[in-house]
Amino acid sequence: MASVNWFVNVFLVSMASAILLLGVVADWLGKELMFVIGAAIFMSTAFLVLSMGDFIWLLLLRCVQDLGAAMISGTAIAILANLFPKETGLVVGINTSTPFLKES
Questions:
Q1: Rounded Cα–Cα distance for residues 34 and 23 (Å)
Q2: Cβ atoms within 10 A of the Cβ of 100, count?
Q3: Each residue of 44-75: b (16+ CB within 10 Å) or e?
Q4: Which of 55, 54, 78, 74 is nearest to 66 (CA)?
Q5: Which residues form the domain of 95?
Q6: Residue 38 and residue 32: Cα distance in Å, rounded?
Q7: pLDDT at residue 17 greater than cutoff 50
Q8: pLDDT tens digits for 22-34?
Q9: CA atoms within 13 A on the CB side of 15
Q10: Other Cβ atoms within 10 Å of 2 Cβ, number
């Protein structure tokens, strides 16, 4: 049970520690570029996680996957606010509530 908790917690801890720093880097390099790089990192590591046999490598790969997730979540709201300046509240609300929608 402790190992399963590490699998989840390593993602949360590394995201909490990286999201602010990556947000600053996105301001320097560009939000769209950081979003695309983050999506590529997240997708590639998502496929690699499936083939890991060693638990330590799985956790390390999960940390790398989280860097991609931090790049995505740190820039998504900023990109939406730039694209829809008059409807920022509506678009941010839709983006935030989308994971909670359930299919009937």
A1: 9
A2: 6
A3: ebeeeeeeeeeeeebbebbeebbbbbbbbebb
A4: 74
A5: 2-100
A6: 10
A7: yes
A8: 989 999 999 999 9
A9: 17
A10: 6
- Residue-wise pLDDT for 64-96, tens only, equals 999 999 999 889 888 999 999 999 899 988 888
Amino acid code (one letter) for 69: A
Alpha-carbon distance of 52 to 75, in angstroms, equals: 29
Max Cα distance, the chain (Å): 49
pTM beyond 0.85: the answer is no
Number of domains in the chain: 1
First to last CA, the chain: 33
Retrieve residue 40's tokens: 């590529």
Written as six digits, the tokens of 74 are 């740190």
